[in-house]
Write a structure and sequence with these properties.
This protein has 92 residues and is of the alpha+beta class. The chain has one domain (11-88): Trna Endonuclease, Chain: A, domain 1, CATH 3.40.1350.10. The protein contains three helices and four strands; from the N terminus they run αβββαβα. Strands 1-2-3-4 form a four-stranded mixed sheet. The N and C termini lie far apart (38 Å).
Length: 92
């Protein structure tokens, strides 16, 4: 069963800054069913990012945890703010 997309408040800031530093960013939030929030490309690398609200536990919903397990071993990174996203793509 598809869960309605909920976009965390910090996502817009993260997307804007990643684009500002030259990353390609595609929102996947509307896909639902546990799919990560963002597909990010930078410097020849591709990243899957799950955005969680700052100050909130990084706990994944069951559908997210299942998606992460089943997606052929791809690493999904949980980020809470702009700095974490930039560190991940090796900007900071």
């Amino acid at each position: 069963m598809r869960r309605a997309a909920k976009v965390d408040a910090s996502q817009a800031d993260i997307v804007a800054m990643l684009r500002r530093v030259g990353a390609s960013v595609q929102s996947l939030a509307k896909v639902g069913d546990g799919c990560p929030d963002l597909l990010v490309g930078h410097s020849g690398e591709t990243y899957l990012m799950e955005v969680k609200e700052p100050g909130v536990k990084r706990r994944l919903r069951p559908s997210q945890a299942e998606w992460h397990r089943e997606w052929c071993g791809a690493k999904v990174h949980v980020v809470q703010d702009v700095d974490e996203a930039l560190r991940l793509v090796k900007i900071l």
